[in-house]
Amino acid sequence: MKTRLKNLVRMSRSLSARIAVLMTIAMLPVGLIAVYQTQAVIDSARLQSRASLMSQIRSGATSERELIENALAASNGLAVLIAKLGEDNCEDILRGFVDGNENYIFAGFVRSSGWLACSSTGDTMDLSERDTVRRAMERDGTSVQVVQNGAVTGRSIVIVTQPVRDDDDEIVGFVSLSIPHATVLSKLEDSGSEGGLRIAAIDIEGDLIAASLGLDAAEDFLPRDIPLADLVQSRNETFQAPSGTGENRYYAVTPMLEGKVMLVGSWPLSSVPGTDTDVQSWIAIALPVLMWIAGVGVALFGIQRLVIRHVAQLRSAMRRFALGERAGTTLELTDPPAELEEAQRAFNRMALLITEGELRREQDLKDKEVLLREVHHRVKNNLQLIASIMNMQARELETEEAKHVVSELQRRVRGMAVLHRALYNTPTSTTVDAAALVRAVVRDVQDLVGPKMAPEIDTVLEQIALYPDQAIPLSLFVAETLNNTITQACRRDTGNRIGVNLTAADDGDICLIIDSPPMTDTGTAPAERLDGMGRKMITAFLLQMGGTMETSTEKGRYRTMVRFPRAAYGD
């Protein structure tokens, strides 16, 4: 989980991720504008489509609208005549009008009380209980209604009414014209069959006046779940709904006669373009998203092509160079931008300068190594030559005391030669392995004493790196102490053994322990029998090492322990 989180954090900080975020921020206003404009275009197309559908409906119902409009105009004219001439001439006026117009089968004047005062048929009666009369009066006398069974004609008719007003503009009744339902239907049937359009006309009460293919077929194409009375309230609206047959159809509602008759148009969805609003909404969003994807994709491709791949090559070359690879580190970018081409030249120049510097330094180190080896070699040879000269001189001396003095000097010179031999063998290091140095001193002391006098020396030595400032006095101290112990305290035939331990303590100090054999028959410890020069030299060596020396006797053996801190470079 932590690894995955780290990877996500690293990816979020990558150049590609940041470019994608910046491109998103930069393109967000453009995307919002695109969404707005696309939605505006879609809305405009919907409005135009809606207007076109409304126009188709009104065009398909032109004949029916003209019929009803003419009936309203005629009833209005009759109302004016009756208001001017009175009821005395009413019957003649109405009869003459009906006889002269085949679209009407009845005309009558109904007083505001609901009494049919005169008619084209000469009938008079009380119509106050009829719903058509009550509705006409509620609408101030102007209405278009469907009546399945006319009170006078007994037929299915469409009644058009207009109010009759007196000189005080008060309604005294209304003129009613009856149009046979068959005549109205004949004007609408098959009028909108082109493109699958079906039209129905309803009054403001929600009663069906006429329909394409007849009233019986209207239920098949009208909305199944929406009452016709509710459709009256949906003027100038479009929507989708299942029809009576279960088919999902597209509907539009528009007034045929404002406040009197509404038209309902119905189309199959396949014949109305742009009706899938969900798809259109998705398109409005998808286009800006595709534009964003294209923009970010082009930006990332450009960044990858122009920057990232070159930076990756530069990083790889730098890593190889940092790991010490010098062959083939020349950086060659393929068609880089001018800025990265300059970085390429700078890297190649830097690599060339560093490589040349390293070569020069390596050659200098080799020269210094050769010189240092030569110095140590010459010093070793010179010391050995001095020791040889001293040996030759000792042979010509007559007194034992003089020979002893020269022999001691010769031994000490040989000890210094051992150190330079060790330095000669490690010319590449500024430190000396103290364990190897002490081991070499032990061998040299044994060789100097000779196999007859030299006892067995057991060594337990840790590899400890010391600078020459401490290594030289350490080796001389070991040589001086061992020589004194071997020559004065023990012989090989006694079976005694000498122990030399060199360890590093936990606190960083160096601890040297020389475990001597039993005391001699004189009863004195080996260290107590050192001559004056030996004592002075050991004291000087301890001072140079910065250490302390402790001596003790345990179980008949004499122990010398030296402890000194390891010096740092330059101390």
CATH level 4 superfamily of the largest domain: Histidine kinase-like ATPase, C-terminal domain
Apparent shape? rod-shaped
Q: Please, how many helices?
A: 14
The largest sheet has its strands arranged as: 3-2-1-6-5-4
Please outline the helices and strands:
Layout: H1 2-12, H2 15-60, H3 62-85, H4 90-99, E1 106-111, E2 115-119, E3 125-126, H5 131-138, E4 143-147, E5 157-165, E6 171-180, H6 181-188, E7 198-203, E8 208-211, H7 215-221, H8 228-231, E9 237-242, E10 248-257, E11 261-268, H9 277-322, H10 338-396, H11 400-425, E12 432-433, H12 434-449, E13 456-461, E14 465-466, H13 468-489, E15 497-504, E16 509-516, H14 532-545, E17 548-554, E18 557-565
Parallel strand pairs: 13-15
Antiparallel strand pairs: 1-2, 1-6, 2-3, 4-5, 5-6, 7-8, 7-11, 9-10, 10-11, 12-14, 15-16, 16-18, 17-18
Helix pairs in contact: 2-9, 3-6, 9-10, 10-11, 11-12, 11-13, 12-13, 13-14
Salient structural properties:
alpha+beta, 571 residues, 14 helices, Beta-Lactamase, six-stranded antiparallel sheet, five-stranded antiparallel sheet, 20% strand
Describe the 3D structure:
This protein is an alpha+beta fold and 571 residues long. It folds into five domains: 2-47 and 277-313, no CATH class; 63-184, PAS domain (Beta-Lactamase); 189-271, Beta-Lactamase; 330-423; 429-565, Heat Shock Protein 90 (2-Layer Sandwich), CATH 3.30.565.10. It has 14 helices and 18 strands. The chain has helices at 2-12, 15-60, 62-85, 90-99, 131-138, 181-188, 215-221, 228-231, 277-322, 338-396, 400-425, 434-449, 468-489, 532-545; strands at 106-111, 115-119, 125-126, 143-147, 157-165, 171-180, 198-203, 208-211, 237-242, 248-257, 261-268, 432-433, 456-461, 465-466, 497-504, 509-516, 548-554, 557-565. The strands form four sheets. A six-stranded antiparallel sheet has the order 3-2-1-6-5-4, with helices on both faces. It has a five-stranded antiparallel sheet with strand order 8-7-11-10-9, sandwiched between helices. Strand 2 (115-119) and strand 3 (125-126) form a beta hairpin. Helix 2 runs antiparallel to helix 9, helix 10 (338-396) runs antiparallel to helix 11 (400-425) and helix 11 (400-425) packs antiparallel against helix 13. The chain is rod-shaped and about 190 Å long. It starts with a helix and ends in a 6-residue tail after the last strand. Mean pLDDT is 80; it is low at 521-529.
